[in-house]
Write a structure and sequence with these properties.
10 helices, 0% strand
């Protein structure tokens, strides 16, 4: 698959296991399952759950819980010899409760916003700040963040930004429309 899995990154900043690696692995579920020597049903269903949780649409709690519990019982009956990892147990058994307790769709609690904001902080620090003292630099970065967080200013260039934005394509998974509440806007 051309993936570097579990290799340390330079400067001790973690390993090569990240979201991009997982996306590439789950994009070819049959090959991924063959490499792991497990059934492709497990890989496909776990991929469906990951996509559903990452999605920023409301999730139908009852259907999601039924889907997860059926996968959990199948997993336990098929793979008795390998204990279910804690993180997988948390989603399969308690995922419905997590969705029920969330005020917003679960996908809205991801790290995407913070990660993209860090890129903007770095750009603002390098290109839009005074650099003769740390206080001046941080003041400029903070003021720039206040300016860019104004909802009216960015809306002026919204159309051009939406055209140039990379769109992630949701793979067609037969269960996904059932798990998501689809609304027509």
């Amino acid at each position: 698959m051309g993936l570097r899995v579990d290799f340390p990154k330079a400067n001790g900043s973690g390993t090569s296991n990240d979201g991009n690696t997982a996306r590439r692995a789950f994009a070819q579920p049959d090959l991924f399952a063959n490499i792991l020597r497990i059934e492709s049903r497990l890989v496909k269903n776990l991929g469906t759950i990951l996509i559903t949780l990452y999605c920023q649409f409301p999730i139908t709690k009852v259907k999601f819980q039924e889907f997860c519990l059926s996968l959990a019982t199948w997993y336990v009956s098929k793979y008795k010899w390998f204990y279910m990892p804690v993180s997988v147990h948390k989603i399969l058994i308690h995922g419905g409760h997590i969705i029920d307790a969330s005020a917003l769709p679960v996908g809205m609690f991801g790290e995407d916003g913070g990660e993209s904001r860090n890129k903007l902080y770095k750009r603002d620090r390098l290109h839009h700040s005074r650099k003769f003292t740390r206080i001046a630099t941080m003041t400029d970065v903070f003021n720039r963040a206040l300016d860019t967080s104004d909802p009216i200013l960015p809306s002026a260039s919204l159309a051009s930004r939406q055209k140039s934005r990379k769109r992630k394509v949701l793979p067609f998974v037969s269960v996904l429309p059932i798990l998501l509440k689809c609304y027509r806007l």
